[in-house]
Amino acid sequence: MTGDSSTQSWDSIADDWIAHADTNDYRNFFLMPRMFEMLGDVRNLRVLDLGCGEGGYGRELARRGAQVVGLDGSARMIQIARHRAAAEKLDIKFICTNANAMDEIADHSFDLVVAPMSLMDVEDYPGAVRETHRVLAPGGSLVMSILHPCFSAPVSQWERDPNERHRLVHFKVDHYFERKVWEERITVRFQKSVLRRHRPLEDYMQVPLRTGFVLEDFCEPLPTEDELTKSARFRKITRVPYFLFMRWKRKT
C-alpha cells in the first residue's frame, strides 16, 4: 500500500473521531444534507465512498439503494465501519488502503465516487485523483467536499472585538499560497493531533482538470433558515464559507 503520512494520525484518533462525528452539528445537519442534495438519486449506482472513515456516508448511500464500497487507509476506521454496516445488515464492502493505491479495484468499476471531507487530508492529492479517474466508468462522477481552502489557510481565524469578545469583527486570512502541513487537534477534547494540510484552490482545481475531469458543479453552501435553528455556530457560515463542494465528471 502506497504510504500516506496522514493515515497513522487518523488511525490513532479513530475512536475519539467517531464519538465526535456522531454528534457533530456541521456534519449531521449541514455537510451530509448538502452532499446528498448534490448526489441526487443514487439507486443502483456503483458507488465508492472514498475516505469513508466510520462509514456514515456509505451507510446512507446503501439505505438509498446504491451498491457501496467503502475505502479508507485507517485499519481502525475500517474495522468500525464494517461493524456498523453489519449491525444494520447493510451489504457494503470495505477496503483498507490509501486513495492513491486502489490496486485491488479494477478500471471503470464505479459510476460515482463520493469523497466527503477526505481529499483535503491525503498526502498525494494528484495520485488520489488519478486513481479516482481510473476506477470511474467513462461519464462517471466524483463528488467531493473539503474545507474551503480560501478560508482554511495556515493563518485563518476570526478577529474579535476587544471590548465585546463575543462579537466577531472579521475573518483574517494570511499565507494563503503557502502549501503547508501541520499538526492540530480537531477539538480541545482530543488528546492527539492529526495532520492538517493546506493547498490553494488552484491545486484542487488544476489537478482534476489535467487528469481528464470536467467541472459540473461548484457550491459554497449557505445554511438555510431551518438549519440556522439547529446550531448557533451556523451563523458564522453566513459570513464566511467554511466548506466547498465540487462535482467532477470523467470524460468519456
- List the total number of helices: 8
Helix content: 25-40%
Amount of beta strand: 25-35%
Unreliable runs: none
Largest pleated sheet: 7 strands, mixed
| Strand runs, count | 11
Instruction: State the separation between the terminal residues, measured CA to CA.
Output: 29 Å
Could you say what the CATH architecture is? 3-Layer(aba) Sandwich
Strand ordering within the main sheet: 3-2-1-4-5-11-10
* Class of secondary structure makeup: alpha/beta
Task: Give your account of this protein's structure.
- With 252 residues, the chain is of the alpha/beta class.
- It has a single domain (5-148, 199-250), classed as Rossmann fold, CATH 3.40.50.150.
- 32% of the residues lie in helices and 29% in strands.
- The protein is built from eight helices and eleven strands.
- The chain has helices at 5-12, 14-23, 25-39, 56-63, 75-87, 125-135, 201-211, 225-228, and strands at residues 46-50, 67-72, 92-96, 110-116, 136-147, 155-160, 168-174, 180-184, 194-198, 213-219, 243-250.
- The strands form three sheets. It has a seven-stranded mixed beta sheet with strand order 3-2-1-4-5-11-10, sandwiched between helices. It has a two-stranded antiparallel sheet with strand order 6-7. The chain has a two-stranded antiparallel sheet with strand order 8-9.
- 32% of the residues are buried.
